[in-house]
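Hi all, posting the design record for the shared folder.

TITLE: backbone redesign
STEP: 1 of 1
STRUCTURE INPUT:
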């Protein structure tokens, strides 16, 4: 940035233009909808938890890392993707809380990442020798690439959008022997992990390793220490999160097929220039070589404008020149000498050229990974990494590297030598594809909410109000008993994603209702076994959506009624929501042939429940227009005394429960025991005493009051999480300090 400010003391116009254009672009994509990116996984998995966590911050003064509402209680910090330890999510939520526009934190967060990502991509292009117009064009190209907008349903892909250009920029700025070069990239990588999603952080460590390795190969031995020092700094500054992730990794489910959905090179090349978003919008989309990504045939993930074609042409040109030179030399010895001479010339390359060589090498690595090539084989033998699910996700770090490589080729590697007409034609063609990409992105953002057949009837707050109204109208006691939801069709159906109707996934957290629902693929097996006859433990859909099908539930009721009954009783499941959606009302069910063998199992399930000896079906009523509510009698409450009577429970926040207790009593709570749970009792005189939290034979919680009586409080206290917030604050302070030093220092770092 200092290059752009040192002439006049003020930022150059291009910087301001990038920021303004990025904001306008995000507003264009939003189209006036403040919740435009609050869809699918963003809506059903992360946001209900992060919103509740940050609401607790405003009311209680701290962010909580445990969630009692889902999965009988579970940590929401260790996986990273809930964002409760992401300082940029906290910033986004705080800003949206103060703004009167009603914008949600996810939309603001994605917009913020786009602005920052474009800013640092522009700065990196300028550093690589591009003039302002070319740097602006490359930035526009980056912002209209299809891969990010095809998967805006995963907010965390935009972490990568920001962090890859930033990491390369910081690497470029640290050229000399200044001490900051031994920690700057490490600070970026530490912040990377705090921002969530270990898969992309791992890819970014690989990127930094390849950049450093290229320097070492080109005989800058200092970069061996730079590499080791920065990795050490990155690990140290993110150590609490890293330890939490390692603990959670023991529960990561083994994948049936390592890294599914590879992207074929030819498909990536051809689709990089095809306006799939526009064609799909008009019903004319097609897939080249049957390259489907997660069941989608729009292949917008492959759209890169002209970047893919031009880089492929540059690669062919380089290979052609080498082969021509090899033919001229005519013998192996001559070729070896030519290669040695080329290596000698590379030794005196500028720092920028060596860095771009590292970017090109990293690009080839990620291309190999996304296609299932040698890089995939290498990573496939690594623990935890071999459970990463999708090959195509490597396109996210590859995309900015492709743009930067092209920017260097066009800017410093021959752009000025080209004729004026050729330069003008290339600029016009690139601008056309930028416009195509922008239209693609707009169409995709509008259509993606229908991709999974979501039926959003209002904003998120309205969904919560609708859910509250339905619960109140049904007379359901969601504070002392649990609900469990069952869908008509397996797979991704509209019922799974209509929050206010079914209380599946993490939505119960948002409305403060206790449920077996949730979403956590890293949950340990012992936790799932506590309700694996209610929510089928062997069913993929149940594990990932935590809302089993009526068919599975009916089969379990017929085949193992005693187990189902015991789990309903022990897990305090008093309310069942039974889907009454017909195939005609479910788009995906019709497309997948769900109507051929479908049978409405509601009556069968209710009849089977009536046969259970210790449970009585008390009533059946309509919960809303697509779900019936079945109320059961005979199940335990969430908190019971030793006589089996219900003890009213109060949920003070996401991770704190309380109830009034008598002396010398044992209380059983239907929540999974965890070694980090702590209980205390506040007596009438204000004295606070600690109480033991014991594990029952069923894996639940037992609290004994001994001689104490008063308000008992149960919460989750884990020093590693407490240390994590302190560590995160230190990392954020160092991160912004490092950025200021790199951006405005008058000498090289």
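Okay, here is what came back for every position:
SEQUENCE:
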């Amino acid at each position: 940035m200092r290059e752009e400010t040192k002439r006049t003391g003020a930022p150059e116009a291009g910087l301001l233009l990038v920021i303004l254009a990025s904001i306008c672009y995000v507003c264009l994509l939003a189209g006036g909808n403040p919740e435009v990116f609050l869809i699918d996984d963003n809506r059903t998995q992360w946001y209900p938890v992060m919103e509740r966590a940050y609401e607790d911050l405003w009311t209680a003064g701290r962010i909580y890392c445990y969630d009692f509402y889902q999965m009988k209680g579970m940590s929401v910090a260790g996986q990273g993707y809930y964002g409760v330890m992401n300082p940029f999510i906290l910033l986004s939520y705080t800003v949206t809380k103060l703004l009167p526009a009603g914008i949600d934190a996810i939309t603001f967060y994605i917009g913020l990442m786009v602005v920052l990502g474009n800013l640092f991509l522009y700065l990196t292009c300028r550093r690589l020798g591009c003039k302002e117009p070319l740097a602006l064009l490359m930035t526009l190209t980056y912002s209209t690439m299809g891969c990010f907008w095809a998967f805006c349903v995963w907010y965390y892909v935009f972490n990568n959008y920001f962090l890859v250009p930033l990491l390369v920029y910081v690497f470029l700025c640290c050229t000399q022997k200044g001490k900051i070069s031994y920690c700057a990239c490490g600070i970026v990588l530490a912040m990377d992990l705090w921002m969530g999603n270990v898969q992309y952080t791992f890819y970014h460590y690989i990127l930094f390793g390849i950049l450093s390795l290229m320097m070492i190969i080109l005989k800058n031995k200092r970069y061996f220490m730079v590499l080791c020092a920065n990795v050490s700094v990155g690990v140290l500054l993110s150590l609490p999160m890293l330890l939490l992730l390692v603990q959670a990794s023991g529960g990561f489910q083994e994948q049936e097929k390592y890294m599914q959905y590879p992207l074929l090179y030819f498909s990536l090349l051809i689709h990089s220039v095809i306006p799939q978003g526009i064609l799909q919008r008009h019903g004319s989309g097609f897939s080249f070589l049957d390259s489907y990504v997660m069941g989608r045939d729009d292949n917008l993930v492959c759209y890169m404008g002209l970047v893919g074609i031009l880089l492929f042409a540059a690669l062919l040109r380089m290979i052609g020149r080498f082969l021509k030179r090899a033919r001229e030399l005519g013998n192996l010895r001559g070729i070896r000498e030519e290669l040695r001479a080329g290596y000698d010339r590379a030794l005196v390359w500028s720092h920028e050229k060596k860095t771009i060589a590292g970017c090109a090498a990293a690009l080839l690595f990620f291309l190999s990974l996304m296609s299932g090539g040698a890089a995939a084989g290498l990573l496939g033998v690594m623990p935890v990494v071999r459970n990463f699910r999708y090959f195509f996700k490597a396109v996210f770090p590859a995309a900015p590297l492709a743009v930067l490589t092209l920017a260097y080729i066009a800017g410093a590697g021959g752009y000025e030598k080209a004729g004026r007409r050729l330069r003008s034609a290339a600029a016009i063609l690139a601008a056309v594809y930028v416009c195509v990409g922008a239209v693609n992105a707009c169409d995709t953002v509008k259509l993606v909410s229908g991709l999974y057949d979501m039926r959003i009837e209002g904003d998120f707050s309205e969904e919560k109000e609708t859910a509250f109204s339905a619960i109140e109208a049904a007379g359901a006691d969601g504070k002392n008993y649990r609900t469990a939801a069952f869908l008509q069709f397996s797979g991704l159906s509209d019922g799974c994603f209509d929050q206010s109707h079914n209380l599946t996934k993490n939505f119960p957290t948002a409305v403060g209702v206790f449920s077996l629902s949730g979403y956590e693929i890293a949950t340990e097996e012992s936790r799932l076994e506590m309700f694996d006859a209610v929510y089928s433990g062997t069913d993929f859909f149940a594990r990932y959506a935590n809302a089993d099908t009526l068919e599975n539930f009916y089969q379990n009721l017929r085949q193992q009624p005693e187990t189902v009954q015991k789990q309903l009783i022990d897990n305090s499941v008093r309310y069942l929501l039974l889907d009454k959606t017909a195939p005609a009302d479910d788009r995906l069910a019709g497309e997948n042939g769900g109507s051929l063998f479908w049978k409405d199992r509601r009556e069968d399930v209710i009849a089977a429940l009536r046969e259970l000896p210790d449970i009585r079906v008390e009533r059946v009523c309509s919960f809303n227009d697509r779900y019936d509510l079945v109320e059961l009698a005979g199940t335990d409450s969430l908190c019971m005394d030793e006589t089996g009577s219900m003890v009213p429970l109060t949920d003070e926040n996401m991770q704190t429960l309380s109830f009034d207790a008598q002396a010398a009593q044992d209380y059983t709570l239907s929540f999974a025991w965890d070694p980090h749970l702590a209980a205390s009792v506040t007596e009438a005189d204000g004295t606070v005493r600690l109480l033991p939290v014991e594990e029952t034979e069923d894996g639940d919680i037992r609290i004994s009051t001994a001689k104490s009586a008063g308000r008992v409080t149960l919460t989750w206290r884990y020093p590693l999480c407490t240390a994590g917030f302190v560590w995160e604050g230190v990392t954020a302070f160092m991160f912004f300090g490092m950025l200021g030093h790199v951006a405005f220092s008058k000498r090289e770092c």
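COMMENT: The CA atoms of residues 28 and 274 lie 22 Å apart.
Let me know if anyone wants the other runs.
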